[in-house]
Amino acid sequence: MDLLLYNTLTRRKEPFRASHPPRVGLYTCGPTVYNYAHIGNLRTYIFSDVLKRVLAFNGLEVRHVMNITDVGHLTGDRDMGEDKLEQGAQREGKSAWEIAEYYTAAFKRDIARLNVLEPTIWCKATDTIPEQISLIQALERKGYTYRTRDGIYFDTARFEGYTKLSHQNLEALQEGARVEKNPEKRNATDFALWKFSPSGAQRQMEWDSPWGMGFPGWHIECSAMSMKYLGDMLDIHCGGTDHIDVHHTNEIAQSEAATGKKFFNFWMHGAFLIIAGGKKMAKSEDNFLTLDATATRNGVEPLAFRFAAFQTHYRKPMEYSESAIAAAQNGLQHLRNQVRALLDTAAPGDIDNGYQEKFRQAVNNDLNMPQALAVVQEMLKSELPPETKLATMFDFDRVLGLDLEKAGGSETLPDEIQSLADARQRARQEKQWALSDELRDRIQERGYLVQDTPQGMKVFKP
Ligand code: AMP
Ligand code: ZN
C-alpha cells in the first residue's frame, strides 16, 4: 500500500518513494535555542516524529538529521535585528554559548518526555561553519552573491523558480520582505549568507571567513548540514508552516543554485498551534506555554500533550485549551486502562493482519492520526481475543509512541503515596489550598501524577 504524503512543492498528496530504498533521508529544522520551546514548537516535533515512525512502520530505515540553531537566527527573519542567541545571553547575564547549551538540554528533555525519538544525528550550526563557508564560496564562484556593507547576500533574481515552494507570486513575497528595509539589497527577497560582525563591537560568536569576521545567515546552516549528513539521500525536509515563505524557500534557492541539483523531493509542513481566538503561539508573545507549564497548570502528564496533538490532523491548526488537554489526559488514561484490563487476562499473541492494514491505511493517508485513533478503538472493542488485541495494540504503539506496554503496572499505590493522597484529600475538604498544592507537588516529585476531576482526585503512575 502506498504511503501518501502531502508535498508542499506540488501541493498534493503523492505516493512517497525513497531515493535509496529501504533507506530514507529525513531532515527536520531544529529549534533556535535562546529560550524554552513552547508547545507550538513541540507540536511540530510531534508531527515529524509521527512521520518518522510511520516511515519505519512501512519498513523503511530512516536516517534522521536535526540541527540546533545556536547562531545566526536574527530577531527579524529578514536578516535585520539582533542575533537571538546574543540577545538571550544579554537577557540572562550568561554567555551565548551557555544559553545555547542550557536550552538545547531543555529541548532534549522536553522531546524525551513526549516520546519524540531522537534523530540519528544531532548537529549544531556552530559545528559546521567551514561547510557553510564552502557552500557560500560555491555560490560566489557561480555569481549568485554580492556584497553590501553588512554582509554577503544571495541574489534571488538570479535563481529561477524562487517561488516554487511558496506558490506565491514574487511581488507578494517581496512585499512581505519589504518590512525590514535594507537599501543596499538588490531585491527585497535577497537574504544574507554571511553577516559581518559590527565594527567596533565584538560578538561572542564570530568566525573568520574569506569575507571578514562574522557569522552565517540563518538559512545556510540547514543547506550545509543536510548535504553533509544526508549526502544525496535528500528525501524529506520538514518544519512548521512559517518556514515555507522564507527559510525553506531560501534553502532551496541557495542549495539548488550551488549544486545544480534538486534539493529534497518532499517538503512537509506542520500547521500551527493556536490559542483561543486564533492567535499563533510564539516565543515573542506573552501567550507562550512551555511543556512544564502546560503539565503543571492542568495537572496532566507531558504525554497527554502528545495524545492531544493526535486529535487534529497535522495540516490543520490545533487549538490549545485547558479542556482539550484535560480530555486528552482522560483519553490517554482510558487507553491505558483498556490495555491494563487486557493484560490482566492475557499475554500478547499474534497481530491481527486485518486491523494492522486498517491502521496502516489511516497513517499512510498523509498521517491521519484522528482516523488511526478511531481504528484503535474499533480494534479494542472488536471480538478479537485479548492476546491478539494486545499484540495488535503494541504494534500500533510503534507509531503512537504512548508507552502502552508499560500500562500493565499495578494500580495500588505505595503506602507513602497513598497517605500523601489521603492528606491532600483532607486538605481540599478543609479548603487549605496552599497545603493541598504542596502535597500535590510532593506526590509528583515522587513520580506520580495528581489529577482533579469532576469525580474527585486521581493519583496514578504515568
Ligand atoms: P524555532 O525554535 O523558532 O526555530 O521553531 C522551531 C519549530 O517550531 C519550527 O519548525 C517552527 O516552524 C515551529 N513553530 C513555531 N511556532 C509554532 C506554533 N505556534 N505552532 C506550531 N509550530 C510552531
Ligand atoms: Zn532549517
Write up this protein.
- The protein has 15 helices and 16 strands.
- It is an alpha/beta fold and 462 residues long.
- The strands form five sheets. Strands 5-4-3-10-11 form a five-stranded parallel β-sheet, sandwiched between helices. A four-stranded antiparallel β-sheet has the order 6-7-8-9, covered by helices on one side. A three-stranded mixed β-sheet has the order 13-12-14.
- It is globular and about 70 Å long.
- The chain starts with a strand and ends with a strand.
- Zinc ion binds next to loops.
Main features:
single chain, alpha/beta, 15 helices, globular, binds adenosine monophosphate, binds zinc ion
Q: What portion of residues is helical?
A: 40-55%
Span of the ends, CA to CA? 35 Å
Bound molecules: adenosine monophosphate, zinc ion
- Number of distinct beta strands: 16
- The unreliable regions are none
Task: Please describe the topology of this protein.
Blueprint: E1 4-7, E2 12-15, E3 23-28, H1 39-57, E4 61-68, H2 84-92, H3 96-113, E5 121-124, H4 129-141, E6 145-147, E7 151-154, H5 170-177, E8 191-196, E9 214-216, H6 220-230, E10 236-240, H7 244-259, E11 266-270, E12 273-275, E13 279-280, H8 291-298, H9 302-309, E14 318-320, H10 322-345, H11 353-363, H12 369-380, H13 386-400, H14 415-429, H15 433-445, E15 449-453, E16 456-460
Parallel strand pairs: 3-4, 3-10, 4-5, 10-11, 12-14
Antiparallel strand pairs: 1-2, 6-7, 7-8, 8-9, 12-13, 15-16
Bound molecules: adenosine monophosphate and zinc ion (ZN).
Zinc ion binds next to loops.
Compact overview of the structure:
The chain has 15 helices and 16 strands. It is an alpha/beta fold. The chain is globular.
